[in-house]
Amino acid sequence: MDLSITFDDSLWPLLISRFHGAATDSEYEAYLAQGTAYLQRGELYVSVLDMGRLVVPTAAQRQRQAEWLQEHDHLLREQFLGAALVITSPFLRLALSTVLHLKPMPMPYVTVYDVPGGLKWAVTRLEEVGLTQSAERIRHHFAKCRSW
Questions:
Q1: What is the pLDDT of residues 67-102, one digit of tens each?
Q2: Domain segments of the chain as ranges
Q3: 9, 39, 81 from 113: Cα distances, Å
Q4: CATH number of 4-144
Q5: SS3 of 33, please?
Q6: 45: phi > 0 → left, psi -120 to 50 → alpha, else beta; which?
């Protein structure tokens, strides 16, 4: 199964990433490069990562994720308000635990079982740092399309 990763930043400062399948090492590097590009915007943001259909990353990819977190620690602390990780697989939860053991996340995060739970957490994070207009716009958008 090939990997498909989509990034939706149409409701910025909310970034929604969706993963489906298994990643090759080059695809995983491309994913990390896109993450770097979002950090280089120099803006505060929050993310919902829907990993409900992601195949567990390889040990090398988990190691690379830990390295990336280390490399970008400063920017993550300054700009990334947090991540809601949508994880339904016990195996993926275990893989995440391995990565976080090697390098804890430098920003707040939560694991949730569905996207609406992740969206609610993300909107709350935006409100906590004073981005209330963005939070309200996002809340209104999802209430209107009934996916909240």
A1: 898 899 999 999 999 999 998 888 777 877 776 776
A2: 4-144
A3: 21, 26, 20
A4: 3.30.750.24
A5: helix
A6: beta
